[in-house]
Amino acid sequence: MKTVPTQSRALPLCRSVASLLTAAALGLGSLTAQAATEMPPFPDVTGDVVQGDGSDYSLKFNIGLTQSSAQYRGLEYFKQIVEQRSDGHINVQMFHSAQLGDDLQSVSALQAGTLEMTSPSTSPMVSMFPQFAVFDLPFLFPEPEVADEVLDGEIGQRMLEEASTQGLVAIGWSENGYRQLTNSNRPVTQPSDLEGLKIRTMQNPIHLDIWRTLGANPTPMSFAELFTALEQHVVDGQENPWITIQSSKFNEVQQYATETNHVYTPFITLVSERFWNRLPESYQQLLREAATQMGEYERHVSRSLNDQIKADLASEGMEVTELTPEQVQVFQETLEPVYDNWRDKIGGELIDSIRNAVQTE
Ligand code: KDG
């Protein structure tokens, strides 16, 4: 087990006025000064200006992560592409931090036609699309590039077509990323360390099964409620990619992190069918191309920052535990029964096709 050396620091259990005034008086920044993370530059917008139908369109694109997430950075690039290549005939308004609703509320708003785009994790959508649950199987993708091959290949493209129903049009994949465990109670190096810990999970039955199987006490909750639940100790821990842990400031209310990489979660880019059907085909194709380029860039942002963010979190006081291969294997072996539990519900053929694809990469 490698623990990144950390400064010993008590968590700001409460931000009393006195502590903030003291910090201000001592010329310190915030008690939880967040290292600024330099985002990779936007790629040039390529491609010709697309001829539309002479009408102007405005689309609202809402996400649950914060303005400093890789996902929002991807939205900014999406906006550049769409507005430049439509010659300003399509205006993109971006919203973050669930300003227009959480994942499930946003999907409902797309179906109602009151919101035009969103890009949720697949996990909370499994009640609509059970096949998405395959992405919640633990340790499915050994490397992110393997996930790319599956999502950008025949399997992923078929899943986009299958999700283009129920008032939704699915036009692309991007990256939430590999999920890491954090908690406010203790270092975790093995499943037995999780006993009794209340772990927030996405609203997804496989994630509940994973953390029950590991011995924790899982609680499903929308992402929008998570920071407050951690701050108020309604739950002891959560699991999300490094860039989400940092961009949502979970390190301000979580002392311990364990690099588990237990699940790779994709984001799926969705458009309201009511809006989609109003667009000329040329603009529909433009949105598809922009969604693909957004996904490729967002993956790059997410992956290029992971190591820096992990080091920043440690330097800002988190005790970050990197598991040995043997310790990872204990988690993998403990979670193998989850595949048996869900094989029939997800579809054995889909699981086998992805596991075969993983073997051949
Ligand atoms: O919009 C943010 C959501 O997609 C959310 O699902 C992110 O990984 C996430 C979580 O833990 O809820």
What does this structure look like?
- The structure is a single chain.
- By secondary structure, this protein is of the alpha/beta class.
- The protein folds into two domains: 2-7 and 180-263 and 314-360, D-Maltodextrin-Binding Protein, domain 2; 56-176 and 266-305, D-Maltodextrin-Binding Protein, domain 2, CATH 3.40.190.
- The chain has helices at residues 17-25, 70-85, 103-112, 144-152, 154-163, 205-213, 226-231, 242-247, 273-276, 281-315, 325-346, 348-360; strands at residues 2-3, 57-62, 90-95, 117-118, 168-178, 180-183, 198-201, 217-220, 237-240, 256-259, 264-272, 319-322.
- The strands form three sheets. The chain has a five-stranded mixed beta sheet. The protein has a five-stranded mixed beta sheet with strand order 3-2-4-11-5, sandwiched between helices.
- Helix 6 links the parallel strand 7 (198-201) and strand 8.
- The longest helix has 35 residues, at 281-315.
- Bound molecules: 2-keto-3-deoxygluconate.
Segments where pLDDT lies below 50 for 5+ residues?
1-16, 22-34
CATH domain fold name of the largest domain:
D-Maltodextrin-Binding Protein, domain 2
Domains counted in the coordinates: how many?
Answer: 2
Strand content: 15-25%
**Ions, cofactors and other bound molecules:** 2-keto-3-deoxygluconate
pLDDT average, as an integer? 91
Fraction of residues in helices? 40-55%
SSE-based structural type: alpha/beta
Secondary-structure topology with pairs:
Elements: E1 2-3, H1 17-25, E2 57-62, H2 70-85, E3 90-95, H3 103-112, E4 117-118, H4 144-152, H5 154-163, E5 168-178, E6 180-183, E7 198-201, H6 205-213, E8 217-220, H7 226-231, E9 237-240, H8 242-247, E10 256-259, E11 264-272, H9 273-276, H10 281-315, E12 319-322, H11 325-346, H12 348-360
2-keto-3-deoxygluconate is lined by residues 63-65, 103, 120-121, 124, 176, 202, 223, 240, 265.
